[in-house]
Amino acid sequence: MACFIVPGTEAIVASIVEKAVASKEDENGSAKKAVAEGKIPWKQKLSWLTAMLWGGAALLALEHIWHGEVVLYPPFLTAMSDAAETSVMLQEMSTVGVAMAVTVTVIWIAMVLIADHVPAIKKKLAGG
Questions:
Q1: Are 72 and 124 in contact (CB under 8 A)?
Q2: In the chain, N or C: fewer CB atoms in 10 Å?
Q3: What is the pTM of this model?
Protein backbone atom coordinates (compact mmCIF):
# COMPACT_ATOMS: atom_id res chain seq x y z
CA MET A 1 0.00 0.00 0.00
CA ALA A 2 2.68 2.49 0.93
CA CYS A 3 5.88 0.50 1.41
CA PHE A 4 7.59 2.74 -1.16
CA ILE A 5 7.47 5.66 1.28
CA VAL A 6 10.20 4.17 3.50
CA PRO A 7 12.87 3.72 0.79
CA GLY A 8 11.71 7.02 -0.70
CA THR A 9 12.35 8.77 2.60
CA GLU A 10 15.76 7.11 2.86
CA ALA A 11 16.45 8.25 -0.71
CA ILE A 12 15.70 11.86 0.28
CA VAL A 13 18.07 11.66 3.25
CA ALA A 14 20.76 9.89 1.19
CA SER A 15 20.44 12.54 -1.55
CA ILE A 16 21.00 15.32 0.99
CA VAL A 17 24.03 13.49 2.41
CA GLU A 18 25.34 12.87 -1.12
CA LYS A 19 25.15 16.59 -1.95
CA ALA A 20 26.92 17.51 1.30
CA VAL A 21 29.68 14.93 0.74
CA ALA A 22 30.11 16.01 -2.90
CA SER A 23 30.44 19.62 -1.82
CA LYS A 24 32.98 18.72 0.86
CA GLU A 25 35.00 16.48 -1.49
CA ASP A 26 35.01 19.13 -4.21
CA GLU A 27 36.06 21.74 -1.66
CA ASN A 28 39.05 19.84 -0.29
CA GLY A 29 39.98 17.96 -3.47
CA SER A 30 39.70 14.50 -1.92
CA ALA A 31 37.59 13.20 -4.82
CA LYS A 32 40.32 14.01 -7.35
CA LYS A 33 42.91 12.48 -5.03
CA ALA A 34 40.88 9.28 -4.70
CA VAL A 35 40.48 8.99 -8.47
CA ALA A 36 44.21 9.58 -8.94
CA GLU A 37 44.88 6.71 -6.53
CA GLY A 38 42.51 4.43 -8.44
CA LYS A 39 39.84 4.60 -5.74
CA ILE A 40 36.19 5.56 -5.98
CA PRO A 41 35.22 8.81 -4.21
CA TRP A 42 32.45 8.74 -1.61
CA LYS A 43 30.22 11.00 -3.67
CA GLN A 44 30.20 8.31 -6.36
CA LYS A 45 29.49 5.55 -3.84
CA LEU A 46 26.62 7.56 -2.37
CA SER A 47 25.24 8.14 -5.87
CA TRP A 48 24.93 4.34 -6.20
CA LEU A 49 22.81 4.24 -3.04
CA THR A 50 20.57 7.11 -4.06
CA ALA A 51 20.06 5.62 -7.54
CA MET A 52 19.12 2.26 -6.06
CA LEU A 53 16.73 3.82 -3.54
CA TRP A 54 15.08 6.27 -5.96
CA GLY A 55 14.71 3.58 -8.61
CA GLY A 56 13.23 1.08 -6.19
CA ALA A 57 10.84 3.62 -4.68
CA ALA A 58 9.70 4.76 -8.14
CA LEU A 59 9.05 1.21 -9.33
CA LEU A 60 7.13 0.40 -6.15
CA ALA A 61 5.08 3.58 -6.48
CA LEU A 62 4.22 2.71 -10.09
CA GLU A 63 3.20 -0.79 -9.02
CA HIS A 64 0.93 0.65 -6.32
CA ILE A 65 -0.58 3.12 -8.82
CA TRP A 66 -1.14 0.23 -11.23
CA HIS A 67 -3.07 -1.70 -8.57
CA GLY A 68 -5.12 1.34 -7.57
CA GLU A 69 -3.62 1.67 -4.09
CA VAL A 70 -2.25 5.13 -4.91
CA VAL A 71 -4.43 7.66 -6.69
CA LEU A 72 -3.76 11.15 -8.02
CA TYR A 73 -6.33 12.85 -5.80
CA PRO A 74 -6.57 13.27 -2.01
CA PRO A 75 -5.96 11.32 0.18
CA PHE A 76 -3.61 9.82 -2.49
CA LEU A 77 -3.19 6.59 -0.55
CA THR A 78 -6.48 4.71 -0.70
CA ALA A 79 -5.71 3.12 2.67
CA MET A 80 -5.92 6.58 4.27
CA SER A 81 -9.68 6.73 3.67
CA ASP A 82 -10.44 4.01 6.23
CA ALA A 83 -8.97 3.76 9.74
CA ALA A 84 -8.76 -0.03 9.59
CA GLU A 85 -6.84 0.09 6.32
CA THR A 86 -4.57 2.83 7.67
CA SER A 87 -3.32 0.53 10.42
CA VAL A 88 -2.67 -2.19 7.82
CA MET A 89 -0.79 0.37 5.71
CA LEU A 90 1.36 1.45 8.66
CA GLN A 91 2.05 -2.21 9.45
CA GLU A 92 3.16 -2.78 5.85
CA MET A 93 5.39 0.30 5.95
CA SER A 94 7.03 -0.81 9.20
CA THR A 95 7.67 -4.36 8.00
CA VAL A 96 7.94 -4.54 4.22
CA GLY A 97 9.09 -0.95 3.67
CA VAL A 98 11.79 -1.10 6.33
CA ALA A 99 12.91 -4.53 5.13
CA MET A 100 13.25 -3.24 1.57
CA ALA A 101 15.17 -0.15 2.62
CA VAL A 102 17.51 -2.20 4.83
CA THR A 103 18.06 -4.77 2.07
CA VAL A 104 18.99 -2.09 -0.47
CA THR A 105 21.34 -0.47 2.06
CA VAL A 106 23.02 -3.79 2.91
CA ILE A 107 23.52 -4.54 -0.80
CA TRP A 108 25.02 -1.07 -1.24
CA ILE A 109 27.39 -1.66 1.70
CA ALA A 110 28.51 -4.90 0.05
CA MET A 111 29.07 -3.02 -3.23
CA VAL A 112 31.17 -0.40 -1.44
CA LEU A 113 33.26 -3.02 0.36
CA ILE A 114 33.89 -4.88 -2.88
CA ALA A 115 34.73 -1.66 -4.74
CA ASP A 116 37.18 -0.69 -1.99
CA HIS A 117 38.99 -4.02 -2.28
CA VAL A 118 39.20 -4.23 -6.09
CA PRO A 119 42.31 -1.98 -6.38
CA ALA A 120 44.18 -4.11 -3.84
CA ILE A 121 43.19 -7.29 -5.65
CA LYS A 122 44.30 -5.85 -8.99
CA LYS A 123 47.61 -4.85 -7.43
CA LYS A 124 48.19 -8.35 -6.06
CA LEU A 125 47.32 -9.95 -9.38
CA ALA A 126 49.70 -7.61 -11.19
CA GLY A 127 52.50 -8.84 -8.92
CA GLY A 128 52.82 -5.65 -6.91
A1: no
A2: C
A3: 0.88
pLDDT tens-place string over residues 5-15: 999 999 999 99
Q: Distance between CA 79 and CA 86 in Å, rounded? A: 5
Give CA 60 to chain center in angstroms: 13
DSSP string spanning 65-95?
A: HHTTSB-SSTTSBGGGGSHHHHHHHHHHIII
DSSP string, 33-64: HHHHTT---HHHHHHHHHHHHHHHHHHHHHHH
